[in-house]
Write a structure and sequence with these properties.
This is 3-isopropylmalate dehydrogenase. This protein is of the alpha/beta class. It is built from 13 helices and 14 strands. The model has no long low-confidence stretch (mean pLDDT 95). The chain binds adenosine-5'-triphosphate and magnesium ion. Adenosine-5'-triphosphate (ATP) binds next to loops.
Length: 353
């Protein structure tokens, strides 16, 4: 049966890396005889320039009609420098997440053995790191009511969680733990936040249904420290939106580069697959960006989106082989950089294929 894949390249390095992810999906389709049909749509800064909004209705309609979405990144430096701009690229992403019901953001943080010397930490600490994050994606402070007082002197973001929101992502995390090393670490700030006390209570209830899984609860600040002290201690981590955002970026550095990390956002309908990095305008258009995060996102699309586990494994193995052969984009060139064969975005993509 034909699968419809929507490609949303977005801004900055988004189009360059997504082209590589798409090319890998085309190659998989050709080798396995899968019928993939591709469409493309706009979102983010480029969409704002073209249409005035970050997520044009046409893009949203195409997204709903597709079986999976491969996305690049959105953003532009002009918004960083002017916080008063009302129409912003991230709004497209937020609306997409909310309306597609993408409540679970899954981020595998795996250190390829070949990249041991690209990590910011000592090899003996990071070797074997394999963490699966479940970040809640449609609740918490990012989606709660936002207020700015009339005199502009006060601002607030309401952090809201409902029982059902915690429960559904906790279930996903425990189910995944059963297929792995059977450990779930739930991260919160239950010592100071009421929403975290609800979080912990619900996770404890869900945990009782999974007696074969070892459950721990850790405060977010302590987790930030433990992740760089003992990253190999962790298996599955489940946490709310804001903590997950920060902790996964931190962990990216454990495994070498933002350019290596893929993510899957899933809910009840179409899944959304993207690198965890942003638009990275500092290197955009220079054939410098690491496309492996997009390629690994394409592998997650195959595995989680379509259940094509063998094809996904082939893509992951191909990435490992290219790294083993010594090819590196500059962001993952390690301390032994003189031994690396430095390549650009397009060549890296072609090597994986
Ligand atoms: P955004 O505002 O969209 O998050 P950003 O400019 O903050 O974008 P990030 O993508 O968050 O950029 O990444 C921060 C830095 O990490 C970039 O400026 C870039 O130097 C580096 N980086 C990110 N992704 C990649 C990649 N795929 N390949 C190489 N370097 C990358
Ligand atoms: Mg960023």
């Amino acid at each position: 049966m034909q699968k419809n894949i929507l490609i949303i390249p977005g801004d900055g390095i988004g189009p360059e890396v997504t082209a590589c992810g798409k090319a890998v999906l085309e190659e998989v389709a050709a080798r396995y005889g899968y019928a993939f049909a591709f469409e493309e749509a706009q979102m983010g800064h480029e969409a704002i320039l073209a249409t005035g909004v970050a997520l044009p209705d046409e893009t949203f309609e195409k997204a709903k009609a597709s079986d999976a979405i491969l996305f690049g990144a959105v953003g532009h430096v002009r918004y960083d420098n002017d916080p008063t701009l009302k129409v912003r690229p991230e709004q497209g992403l937020f609306r997409m997440r909310k309306e597609l019901g993408l409540y679970a953001n899954i981020r595998p943080v795996i250190l390829f053995d070949e990249l041991l010397d690209a990590s910011s930490l000592k090899p003996e600490i990071v070797k074997g790191t394999d963490i699966l994050f479940f970040r809640e994606l449609t609740g918490g402070a990012y989606f709660g009511e936002k207020v700015r007082s009339e005199d502009g002197e006060m601002a607030s973001d309401l952090m809201v969680y409902h029982r059902y929101e915690v429960e559904r992502i906790a279930v996903k995390a425990f189910e995944a733990a059963r297929t792995r090393r059977k450990k779930v670490c739930s991260v919160d700030k239950a010592n100071v936040l009421e929403s975290s006390r609800l979080w912990r209570e619900v996770v404890q209830q869900v945990a009782r249904r999974y007696p074969d899984v070892e459950t721990t609860h850790m405060l977010a600040d302590n987790t930030a420290m433990q992740l760089i002290k003992h990253p190999t201690w962790f298996d599955v981590i489940v946490t709310e939106n804001l903590f997950g955002d920060i902790l996964t970026d931190e962990t990216a550095q454990v495994v070498g580069s933002m350019g290596m990390l893929a993510s899957a956002s899933i809910g009840d309908g179409t899944g959304f697959f993207e690198p965890i990095h942003g638009s990275a305008y500092d290197i955009a258009g220079q054939d410098k960006a690491n496309p492996l995060a997009s390629i690994l996102s394409a592998a997650l699309l195959l595995e989680i989106g379509f259940g094509m586990k063998e094809a996904a494994k082939q893509v992951n193995d191909a990435v490992a082989r290219v790294l083993k052969a010594g090819y590196r984009t500059s962001d993952i060139s390690g301390r032994m950089g003189h031994k690396d064969k430095i390549v650009g975005t397009r060549e890296m993509g072609a090597l994986v294929i």
